[in-house]
Automatic annotation (TrEMBL):
Name of a matching Pfam family: oligo_HPY
Organism: Anaerocolumna sedimenticola
Matches recorded under PROSITE patterns: ABC_TRANSPORTER_2
One MF term in the entry's GO annotations: ATP binding
Domain named ABC transporter: residues: 11-258
Source superkingdom: Bacteria
Lineage: Bacteria, Bacillati, Bacillota, Clostridia, Lachnospirales
BP terms from Gene Ontology: peptide transport
PANTHER family: MALTOSE ABC TRANSPORTER, ATP-BINDING PROTEIN (PTHR43067:SF3), OLIGOPEPTIDE/DIPEPTIDE ABC TRANSPORTER, ATPASE SUBUNIT (PTHR43067)
Name of the protein in its database record: ATP-binding cassette domain-containing protein
Record key words, sorted: ATP-binding, Nucleotide-binding, Transport
Gene3D superfamilies: P-loop containing nucleotide triphosphate hydrolases
Length: 335
């Protein structure tokens, strides 16, 4: 095992509504991310992916609240820090976050170089502007972004170019962990490919040490990440290698999720697409048992009342189900 860049243990966070109701959006998530590795997080809308991304930064502000658990970045426990400490010593250098639709957050009246100056001056107020420009120019050129972009305004850039520029700005301080939430959504296929290539280059060239890639577009995860975690109703229900998760998922929800997409690989031509019936549970009052039980065709009476723990296999694979691996294979074969 390589050096651990990010270790998360039993992380629980919640939203508190204006009616003082709690929504348990991240419930007991644990993961380890090694240097040089990437993890993809998949799941349908509302399962908690984006909330998990926010929670992993250790930077909490209403309505999101930390409950318990630890977030350790390169040996440093950031879950014990104040928001001000996290902002000054963690964000940008230890962890960088690219939110959904980040390209729309660029101020149209500022030049791109001004954004970079703001990011760097937040950590090093004394760095001269000419040094910042040289650093930005070199980084942009290495990432195949024209240096001329630095002197442009956001409105002068296409959607794909804006997204790649945002990624370059977000990683200008070479963070150890990059969390990217739907970085290629709302882009055409060509722009998506360029964004994915850029993120691979960031890893290969050592500008980032590790990556968490969140998307609902599962074929992207197969081509980008080493491992995939499937999230449902605030919990991780399965984790495995990208190949295992796409071609041999164990958990009934993972099977349904993978069966609802087209994977452009040999052997999938005649596979029929399926839909998962029902809707996710209300996380204001999570079910006592398996959160997928109401939608699972293999559910047993015990599934709805018994707390379902994570099952860890010798090869590092994990799933959360009352059935063991052989039973899952058997019920699937008897369909």
């Amino acid at each position: 095992m390589g050096k651990i860049m990010l270790e998360v243990n039993n992380l629980k966070t919640k939203y508190v509504t204006r009616f003082n109701e709690s929504v348990y959006a991240v419930d007991g998530v644990s993961l380890k991310l090694e240097e040089g590795k990437s993890i993809g997080i998949a799941g349908e809308s509302g399962c908690g992916k984006s909330t998990l991304a926010l929670s992993l930064m250790g930077y909490y502000f209403a309505p999101l609240h930390y409950m318990e658990g630890s977030i350790i970045v390169d040996g440093k426990n950031i879950s014990e820090m104040t928001p001000d400490q996290v902002r000054k010593t963690v964000l940008g250098t230890e962890i960088s976050y690219i939110p959904q639709a980040a390209m729309n957050a660029l101020n149209p009246t500022q030049k791109i170089i001004n954004f970079i100056e703001d990011v760097i001056h937040a950590h090093d107020p004394k760095m001269p502007k000419n040094m910042i420009y040289d650093l930005a120019r070199e980084r942009f050129e290495v990432l195949n972004l024209p240096k001329e972009v630095l002197q442009k305004h956001a409105v002068e850039l296409s959607g794909g170019m804006k997204q790649r520029t945002v990624i370059a700005i977000s990683t200008i301080l070479s963070p150890k962990v990059l969390i990217a939430d739907e970085p290629s959504s709302a882009l055409d296929v060509t722009s998506q490919k360029m964004v994915i290539k850029m993120m691979r280059d960031l890893m290969v060239k050592g500008f980032i040490k590790s990556m968490i890639f969140i998307t609902h577009e599962l074929p992207l995860l197969y081509n980008v990440t080493d491992d995939i975690m499937v999230m449902y109703a605030g919990q991780i229900v399965e984790k495995g290698t990208a190949k295992e998760m796409v071609f041999d998922p164990l958990h009934p929800y993972s099977k349904g999720l993978m069966g609802s997409i087209i994977v452009p690989e040999a052997g999938t031509r005649d596979v029929k697409l399926t839909a998962i019936p029902g809707t996710p549970p209300n996380l204001k009052k999570p079910p006592a048992g398996c959160r997928f039980a109401e939608r699972c065709k293999y559910a047993q009476p015990a599934c709805k009342v018994q707390s379902i723990e994570e099952m860890h296999m010798d090869d590092g694979r994990m799933y959360r189900c009352i059935l063991n691996q052989n039973q899952l294979k058997e019920v699937e074969n008897h369909g």
